[in-house]
Amino acid sequence: MKFRHIALALACGFAATASAQDLSTITQEKTTQIVSALSADDMEGRASFTPGIDKAAKLIQREFQRIGLQPLPGEDDLMQTFTMYRAAPREKEVKLDGKKVSPENVFAITDKKELEWKHKGKQQVVKIGENDDFRTALRSLNNEQDVVVLVHPKHEDIFKRYQHYMGEGSVKQQLEEGGSSKVFILTDQLNARKYNIEVENNIEQLQLTNVGGMIEGKRKNEFVVFSGHYDHIGIQKPIDGDSIANGADDDAAGTTAVMQLADYYKQQPQPERSLLFVAFAAEEIGGFGSKYFSEQLSPDEIVAMFNIEMVGKPSKFGPNSAYLTGFERSDLGKLMQKRLEGTTYSIHPDPYPEQNLFYRSDNATLARLGVPAHTISSVQIDQDKTYHTVNDELEQLDMAHLTNMIKAVALASQGVVNGEDTPTRVDKSQVK
């Protein structure tokens, strides 16, 4: 019996030493190197459909190749490329009761290449009056078909903001030939006995790319996903001469974590479950990268998703801590907490439920399909002054904290990776 106790103690000591040695491969030096490169000025803010995002994709691809990842299931290489469509306005001509309306007072929401409407009762006419709430009225139109919307000049400021946004073009995975269209007109005429509307869009076919790879497990068709988005918001209005929104925390930090975790797990023995490491495109313009990724796999085969976003700054719970969005929707958070017992790292429930963070990142698509898909974050989002600004710079990050967050995820995910832990599924009926 004594020898058995000695053997057990030696084995436990060896396991602890091995674990510490394994985690030592996640270094602050490597973390700094990767996040610096991803958030550098020459990436130009990594906006979708720009040379900067293409440059970032190639950097991630090279690192995944160096690590030795296989392509994602169904892919030939590490670049998961897919097609999108952008409909951008080219010409607008509107007449109300025979009077021409300036194009500056018109915007349209439509996928169609051309609209030609004449007053024949086919289009509904809706008024947003002086005392109406513009956003509430806009939401009420979501399920309506073709609509002409007459907007009172009192709403000019918010009208112009929407007009500017729509002027950049709407991006979609598919164009809906039979879909609805809406034309908004800023006017003091809140009755339109006659109208003549012509809108012409420029339709572009564009490409987006997720960068992803796999470590195949013994259970080939049980997948664990580690993810983060690598796009950001590009070039913005200059502040003190700086116009590049570098996106160091959002989400070069999370993408760096995914790359480091891929390297970490590649150096371990073959995992029980297959591990997918994905840097998503286009989170900032609608989560199109994660949507496309989710369509390539059966959600029933995805055991869990560890999505990582904005982990470069300490959380309100202190150093080496983070929170999990949608903590109550599965028991993944509790499983992670259990794995971190006795360490200096901790995971907490999301302290910002009013921010609706569970639905604001790339975990949401798979969560809606029942996957225990959650986002790990540490940003104090209610106080962060650099979010979506040109000041989200490398210098704002706490490199020791970021490195420790990567180590925390490595430890917290081991039970799921080795098949000992299987989180409960998200109740699809409770997800928006």
Automatic annotation (TrEMBL):
GO molecular function annotation: metalloexopeptidase activity
Domain Peptidase M28 as annotated: residue spans: 210-410
Keyword Signal: yes
The keyword Nucleotide-binding is assigned to this record: no
Coiled-coil region: none
Source organism, top-level taxon: Bacteria
Entry keyword set: Signal
GO terms for biological process, alphabetical: proteolysis
Residues making up the signal peptide according to the UniProt record: 1-20
Pfam family, one: Peptidase_M28
Protein name according to UniProt: Peptidase M28
Organism: Pontibacter actiniarum
